[in-house]
Design brief:
By secondary structure, the chain is an alpha/beta fold. The chain contains twelve helices and 20 strands. Strands 1, 2, 3, 4, 5, 6 and 15 form a seven-stranded mixed β-sheet that branches. A five-stranded parallel β-sheet has the order 7-14-8-9-10, with helices on one face. Strand 12 and strand 13 form a beta hairpin. Helix 3 runs parallel beside helix 5. The longest helix has 23 residues. The protein is globular.
Length: 469
């Protein structure tokens, strides 16, 4: 049993925890990074990367089946489920190993493999018998897949994002419960890989999109590839090695599936941390109340970052929050409150769904564009989707956007930067648009916003669409 005295103790070695430790050490603090396994980040092990590997395989199968449109005949497209899943795990393990290897580069004595709990505001007890005293503590314990009561009795028949990539082979049929990013991505990927897939959600909407046009098209396109049931309650029970799923609503019914993927949310990992001993104020979900600009929990020398705070569960936010938390923990009691990044999420469906900035309100200026006839999209035989851009009156300063169209995952980066910089639709129209590109498809939406502002369209350029654009 050893007692460790340090400046900053970070609990959790995921994306936020790694960033917090690095930031605190960079600010001159002595640091400890405490984790029960050091298995690698959620992104590398069970999130971003393995899901994209599965999506890439699904895209290859989908493209092969659709090659006839280009005059290219691809016969007998066969999906080897075992080979697909083997590559997912092989490449996933490389990403995870790269993260684990990075821990070896930390100063000696930084990493402690143990589970931590608070015994006082800045005191920790570890399950290996060690104790820790710190000037400040960062909670970066991440989140975990939730399996709600209707599915608890299914055992291995119920999958989550933490277990689905361990399948040796693709199932013959799959029910996906949850229409958020994880559910949408994996449902479409499984369907394209030949799995008989159905998606269920209690909500009438998918993916967090707010504009009704985006919602309608998202449901139409996803529903064209798999069975879609929205606004339903679901119950499940094991049935001779399969799952009998029943659902309510106008489309109510019952059928058997080989497996169920439960994608209904990822609550924070805060149970067992002994937060009461730290004297922290907790919200209704048992998560510490914190300042989202400083990451500080109340008036305590305790900070919380990443999925553990259930605020903005995406990697770039976790990394940024970890950096702020670590720096403020190192400098405590002096803390900085840097400006938060605008909200920005991507769902890697096909087409991708991008939601950024602020959603529309009563006073929002909305500009729209369709990709159903967009030139570059037609060239690539993926002419479907739309864009809704949001601007503030009176000048059309961009405040947000929803894109469900080819290239949305790339164009969204241009738009989020424009929002950060306070650019107007007119400013963006002054930018050169190369032809033929998917970016040209933004011009009608930008023009529409400009026409609804007192200054109108910018002058001095030809703002019309190029022939075929």
């Amino acid at each position: 049993m050893t007692h460790h005295d340090t400046d900053v103790a970070v609990i959790g070695a995921g994306t936020a925890g790694i960033a917090a430790e690095r930031s605190a050490r960079g600010a001159g603090a002595r640091t400890l990074l405490i984790d029960e396994a050091f298995r690698g980040t959620l992104c590398a092990t069970t999130g971003c990367m393995p899901s994209k590997l599965l999506i890439a395989a699904a895209g290859a199968a989908h493209d092969a089946r659709g090659a006839d449109v280009f005059g290219i005949s691809v016969s007998d497209v066969a999906v080897d489920g075992r080979a697909v899943m083997a590559r997912v795990r092989q490449e996933r393990d490389k990403f995870a190993k790269s993260t684990r290897d990075s821990f070896d580069d930390l100063p000696d004595g930084t990493c402690i493999m143990a589970r931590a709990r608070f015994t006082a505001r800045t005191e920790l007890a570890l399950d290996n018998g060690d104790t820790v005293s710190a000037r400040a503590i960062v909670i970066a314990t991440g989140s975990h897949a939730s399996v709600p009561e209707p599915f608890e009795g299914l055992g291995d028949l119920a999958l989550t994002n933490e277990s689905v990539f361990e399948l040796e082979d693709l199932p013959g049929s799959l029910a996906v419960v949850g229409g958020g990013a994880i559910g949408l991505e994996l449902a479409q990927a499984m369907a394209r890989l030949g799995v008989d897939t159905a998606l269920f959600d209690q909500s009438e909407t998918l993916g967090g999109a707010q504009h009704p046009d985006v919602q309608a098209l998202l449901a139409k396109i996803v529903g064209g590839e798999l069975s879609l049931h929205l606004g339903v309650n679901v119950s499940a029970e094991p049935a001779d090695g399969r799952v009998r799923l029943s659902w309510s609503g106008a489309s109510g019914g019952e059928r058997l599936f080989d497996r169920v993927l439960v994608a209904t949310g990822r609550p924070p990992n805060v149970d067992g941390l002994g937060l009461d001993a730290a004297g922290l104020e907790l919200d209704d979900h048992g998560v510490p109340v914190f300042d989202r600009t400083t990451m500080r929990c109340g008036d305590a020398p305790v900070f919380i970052a990443g999925d553990a705070n259930a605020d903005a569960p995406v990697l770039h936010e976790a990394s940024s929050e970890g950096a702020v938390a670590g720096r403020n923990a190192a400098r405590y009691p002096a803390v900085d409150a840097p400006e938060r990044m605008p909200p920005f999420t991507l769902t890697f469906t096909d087409p991708p769904l991008a939601i950024l900035g602020e959603g529309p309100t009563d006073g929002t200026i909305v500009g729209g564009a369709s990709y159903a006839e967009q030139g570059r999209a037609r060239v690539e035989a993926r002419a479907q989707g739309l864009v809704r851009l949001y601007g503030a009156a009176p000048d059309g300063r961009l405040t947000g956007a929803e894109l469900f169209c080819p290239g949305a995952d790339h164009m969204a980066h241009l738009l989020i930067r424009a929002i950060q910089c306070g650019d107007t639709a007119s400013d963006l129209l002054e930018m050169p648009f190369y032809h033929p590109t998917l970016e040209e498809g933004l011009k009608p939406a930008l023009r529409e916003i400009c026409k609804k502002t007192p200054s109108g369209l910018p002058t001095g350029r030809d703002l019309s669409d190029a022939p075929g654009a």
